[in-house]
Amino acid sequence: MTEDSGMRILFFAQLKDATGREEIRWPETGPLTAADIWARLEREWPAVTVHRRTTRLARNGEYARPDEVFLAGDEVALIPPVSGG
Q1: In a 10 Å sphere around its CB, with 0-12 CB exposed, 13-18 middle and 19+ buried, how is residue 62 labelled?
Q2: CB–CB of 79/61 below 8 Å?
Q3: How does pLDDT run across 7-55, given as a tens digit for each residue?
Q4: Which has the least CB within 10 A, 7, 17, 29, 74?
């Protein structure tokens, strides 16, 4: 990320519908766990809670491990399940 040292959060599919946003920025973000990110999102948009179990987080273009630490400057994507056809 080049605009600032904050965290960029991207929403897709159902998460985009639940938040009404494609992306947000958290400018003052320090180290966060996945649980921290979800807690903050759920406070702002309670409708995202129903998607938590099936949504994966990606950090800087790669799926994040469950124990991953997210830092200022990271791009975090919320990736819902996808189906093929």
Answers
A1: exposed
A2: no
A3: 999 999 999 999 999 999 998 778 999 999 999 999 999 999 999 999 9
A4: 17
From the options 3.40.50.2000, 3.90.10.10, 3.10.20.30, 2.60.120.10, give the CATH code of 7-79. 3.10.20.30
Query: Can you tell me the distance from the alpha carbon of 1 to that of 69, in angstroms, rounded to the nearest whole number?
Result: 17
- Strands (E) located in the chain: 7-11, 23-26, 56-59, 62-63, 75-79
Look up residue 38 and give its amino acid. W
**What is the distance in angstroms between the CA of the first residue and the CA of the last residue of the chain?**
34
Contact, 80 vs 65, CB < 8 A?
no
